[in-house]
Amino acid sequence: MTQAVVEVGARLRYEGRVWTLAVLEGARATLVTDEGASAVVLLPYLFADPSFGVEGGPAPGRVPPFGLLEALPLEVRERALAWQRHVREVKTGFPDAVGQGAPREQFDPALRSLAQRGRAKAEELRAAGWAASAATVRRMRARYRSEGLWGLVDGRAVRERSAVGRADERVVAAVRKVLEGQRERSTGTLVRLRRRVGWLLEEEYGAGVVALPPASMFNRLVHAVADGQGLWGTAAQRRWHASRPAPPFTPTVALRPGELVMLDSTPLDVLAVLDDGVTGRLELSIALDVATRSICAAVVRPVGTTSVDAAMLLAQMVVPTAMRPGWDAALSMQRSVIPYERLVALDARLEGAAARPVIMPETVVVDQGRVYVSASFISACESLGVSVQPVPPANGPAKGNVERTFRAIADGFSQYLPGHTGSDVSQRGAAAQGDACWSLAQLQELLDEWVICGWQERRHDALRHPMMPQVAVSPNEMWAAWVAVTGHVPVPLSADDYVELLPLRWQAINDYGIRFGYRTYDHPGLDPYRRRRSPRADKNGRWEVHHNPYDPNRVWVRLPEGWLEVPWVHAAAVRRPFTAFTFDHVRRTVERRHGREEHEAAIAQALDALLRRASQGLGSRRERTVAARAQAAAQMTDPSPAATPQQWPAPLAPGASFGLPGSFTIPLQDADGWDTDDSLDDIEDAPDGEDYLLAGLADGQDAATGDADEAEASGPTAETARDQAAEQTLDAAGAGGLRIYDPYQEAQAW
Fold first, then answer.
1. What is the DSSP string of 154-221?
2. Which segments show compositional bias classed as Acidic residues (predicted)?
3. Which regions of the chain are under pLDDT 70?
4. Distance separating alpha carbons of residues 366 and 389, to the nearest angstrom
């Protein structure tokens, strides 16, 4: 390639005018026009001008596109390199850039002219089998001078091809128009599309003017036009592509924790056992900090997120996550990269917290769902000084970070759980519903633990340290880095502020405490206020009660002296190991009731009674098996459980046996056995309750005497059966054991 030379007296093009280079001093050039105007320009600025050029000189050479050369087929590259050696030899006498030795006689510039050397090279190429003439050699020399090596490449190998080939442009335009017109329609076949394209061509150009290509060629044409444009595929895919904003895209940038927090909800691909004992789908709501990719809060609930759940996200974000019993010590904040000492110095409540940073949001990004634009959610945000930024309707890319996080949760958490359903029905297993064994509260507990060990401590490809962009870091590491850069450590809210964000109910304080949602809560601190009206006359004397929908073990009551935490009276009812075996047994028993409305207290006592009876040999074989599995599982997890003496169970509530064969059942008072307002709190413990239970469990003479008159009326057969039953009872008593009263066995004996 020949480069232009800039020297004094050269005519240059600069800023659309022709100048003469008058003075060249160092990196400065003095330019003069024919009209007498002058200018002093720095050479880099002169050469960078788009209109710069040398008048009458050769065109500036182009650097070969080496990337495109590497992509060419091997034989094409080798032929171009061969032409380069031939052109060099014609020009300089040496085929290589660095000439060594003496040039060959027919190509020596000192002995032959350029035309003679060109003719000699053409003869040599023809002798080698190349179809080349002297004109071909001159053309290759000119192309090499202007374009370099790229000019010697066979043009047929780099010819640009259209995606639609040689198809008629009118047919291509018609296909594109029909595809765009049916973007919002239901998905059809290619046959329907071909008919509509034909109808459109007839309307615009007349019948028979533009011919449709054959079906196979038409199908290839459709895919060539639609691929990558979102014009073909399912209706959902077309709508998703249409909802994307037009490029170029503006990236979402957050330079400090809490600057931008995205909130969204999605169905969780897991079936859970709900409060009514049946399996159902769940919905997951999360809050994601954009700067650190930290999951600030995660709430699982049955399908149908409410504004209360959205407010719960805010409440979880601004309070530390406490370490739960059974969690590994490695999940604590003290063991993580989070600046634990600095945070504890600011707020002592963070001592013993889990390794999830507390991020106070400045702006939350939400969709147009009624949950996130409701008055209650907006009010909760305003109370915390948080701005709400809604995204355009049906615009998933506007909150793509949280959408991608949902997929990561599905891949890293949901698919490992029993009852996993997959993202659609085509991925759902046949036994998904039967495999479901976790309750809503248990899934929430598992998710909270996974967020810390499976997300916050995992390296994220989108997180790069500002000083080390090649190193991927975890959300906790990024949070620590941003805190060091921004110099801001958020202080979490107090416990009272957290309670204020919880859902509110107005309830009366009765003798038995506070009851709602089939649960009873009581505390000695309520004694001065039982059956008393609150100062709020507009609420009919009821008291303000706040509760956590995902933690039914306690509620908070606002009293004149402040908040009082009131526990659930049945929180400690199940004192024995409560594993999946036991829970599944109770769930299946409840499902056999065919939709009967359940009382929560009866479920709690039934589970406790089942474990007691089975562990003491007072249950059916199935019940003893279930309790044995639970006991074994607990012993494996806790090698030194506290020994508790066996005691006789308290009198069972009506229907507490759930109709299990071989268990003692008190006769029901009505068809349901319990009124909707009944509770275990209303049952007074009888002083002879233990004897009453023993009388029902033992098959001794007292149990047989109750039917003496009826047995006498039955004659010898009844008397014989009664004696047999008594003998069996005496045998059991003599062996030192008690036998459960079995009505089926008695009926068989009679």
1. -GGGS----TTTT--HHHHHHHHHHHHHTTTSPP--HHHHHHHHHHHHHHHH-TTTSPPPPHHHHHHH
2. 672-688
3. 1-4, 57-62, 307, 346-347, 349, 394, 465-466, 487-493, 550, 573-750
4. 6
Residue 25 tokens read as 């001093």
Quick: pLDDT tens for 678-699.
433 433 333 343 333 333 333 3
User: What letter does residue 517 receive in the DSSP assignment?
Assistant: T
pLDDT tens-digit profile of 344-394? 776 676 777 888 888 888 999 998 877 788 877 888 788 788 899 888 876
Cβ distance 20 to 31 under 8 Å? Answer: yes
Give the model's pLDDT for residue 3: 64
Instruction: Measure the CA–CA gap between 291 and 232, rounded to whole angstroms.
Output: 36
Give the bridge partners for 363, in sequence order. 387
Q: Are 657 and 606 in contact (CB under 8 A)?
A: yes
For 81-109, what is the HEC assignment? HHHHHHHHHHHHCCCCCCCCCCCCHHHCC
Angle between helices 621-637 and 580-591 (to 10 degrees): 150
Give the number of other Cβ atoms within 10 Å of residue 556's Cβ.
Answer: 22
CB 302 within 8 A of CB 282: yes
CB atoms closer than 10 angstroms to residue 487: 8
**pLDDT at residue 489, rounded to an integer:** 54
Residues 6+ apart with CB under 8 A from 197: 171, 174, 175, 178, 212, 218
Structure-block tokens of residue 140? 């290759």
